Write a sequence for this structure.
């Protein structure tokens, strides 16, 4: 069984000061929404229940949101604190033995098949996960949990669950198809559930215009029709509506390496760049780095006016040179929306060790091995920038076919 852990309005609650603060503002009749981030498109983030009652939706243009709800209160986003709180929640779930797949802040999946030997039953496993989320290390917030044969079924179940009572859908293991009862229950769910997948989120508006309201109506359209009209996202939406989904992809556990520093009066300008240089030198001097290069880092700041700022930086190639790292990160400091009170630099992923030496004899075999290693490193770096599907290779399937799309298919590059 796959379990979905859902924390509704997670980023909004963190930015507003906690879930209790959001509830208090909602009871007072105030509509809350996350303000657009600096430098991003002018669209609101997560919204409260009062804002949804006024017609404001997540991702709506700021002008339209204010026109629908003039009393809308914009909360400055705090991505730095949200990332820290979400990381604590994931680590709390991993402490019970779960292999967690984080989909986005406030939404994660894990399987219970390998945890029955630890906790006994699926119900005991879900209860342990609820206690982990309510613990201080996990953020102290009750999570809505749902279980089902696939990730999408578990997501639909978590949205139908109460805050303290999980909702479970009948179904076999992850390797088998959903049962008729699970398909029948999923058919009555609204089509806006597809908004939780970035691939199928753009399909909600055209499907609504076509009169498709539920997942059952979408499933009746047929996979061929959806694929012909919307391409690969349409085929994926039909698979999700039928209860089919891919397996859980658990994240890889890595050591957490970070450095932070209060900037004091050096809140901007050249003084802030000197603070950044100190953080880079400290990070490279840590013994836990073990001579490895840095592939991707997270640069974040706590702002003087409140809130936070967070930027993910993937280098063009894995680096350990402090000058080049400082040069790449100093350009991102120009994106700070306000003076900073504290600066933090953490490692997201490491590259190969920097002390590798080539062969003494430059023969053909050594050159071939060097080219293979450089190609592998380039693939890893590209995946760090644009995701796992960024590097694909063409595989000939049916060269004699008259349909061009059937001659060659794209497959992931195996490391």
């Amino acid at each position: 069984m796959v379990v979905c852990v859902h924390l509704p309005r997670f980023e909004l609650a963190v930015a507003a000061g906690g879930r209790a603060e959001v509830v208090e503002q909602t009871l007072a009749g105030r509509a809350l929404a996350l303000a657009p981030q600096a430098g991003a498109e002018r669209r609101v983030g997560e919204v409260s229940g009062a804002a949804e009652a006024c017609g404001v939706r997540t991702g709506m243009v700021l002008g339209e949101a204010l026109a629908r709800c003039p009393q809308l209160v914009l909360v400055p986003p705090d991505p730095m604190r949200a990332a820290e709180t979400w990381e604590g929640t994931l680590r709390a779930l991993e402490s019970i033995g779960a292999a967690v797949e984080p989909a986005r802040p406030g939404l994660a999946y894990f399987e219970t098949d390998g945890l029955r030997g630890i906790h006994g039953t699926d119900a005991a496993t879900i209860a342990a996960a609820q206690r982990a989320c309510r613990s201080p290390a996990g953020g102290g917030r009750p999570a809505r949990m749902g279980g089902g044969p696939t990730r999408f079924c578990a997501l639909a179940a978590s949205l139908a669950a109460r805050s303290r009572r999980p909702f479970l859908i009948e179904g076999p293991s992850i390797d088998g198809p959903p049962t008729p009862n699970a398909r029948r229950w999923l058919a009555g769910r609204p089509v806006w559930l597809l908004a939780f997948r970035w691939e199928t989120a753009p399909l909600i508006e055209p499907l609504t215009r076509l009169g498709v309201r539920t997942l059952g109506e979408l499933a009746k359209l047929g996979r061929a029709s959806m694929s012909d009209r919307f391409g690969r996202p349409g085929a994926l939406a039909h698979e999700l509506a039928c209860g089919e989904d891919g397996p859980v992809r658990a994240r890889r556990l890595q050591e957490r390496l970070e450095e932070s520093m209060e900037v004091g009066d050096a809140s901007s300008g050249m003084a802030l760049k000197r603070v950044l240089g100190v953080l880079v030198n400290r990070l490279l001097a840590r013994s836990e780095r073990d001579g490895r290069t840095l592939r991707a880092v997270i640069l974040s700041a706590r702002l003087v006016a409140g809130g936070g700022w967070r930027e993910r930086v993937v280098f063009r190639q894995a680096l350990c040179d402090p000058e080049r790292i400082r040069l790449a990160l100093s350009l991102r400091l120009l994106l700070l929306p306000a003076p900073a009170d504290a600066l933090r630099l953490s490692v997201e992923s490491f590259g190969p060790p920097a002390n590798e030496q080539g062969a003494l004899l430059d023969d053909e075999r050594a050159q071939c091995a060097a080219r293979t290693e450089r190609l592998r490193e380039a693939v890893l770096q590209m995946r760090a920038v644009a995701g796992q599907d960024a590097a694909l290779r063409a595989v000939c399937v049916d060269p004699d076919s008259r349909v061009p799309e059937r001659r060659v298919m794209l497959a992931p590059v195996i490391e």
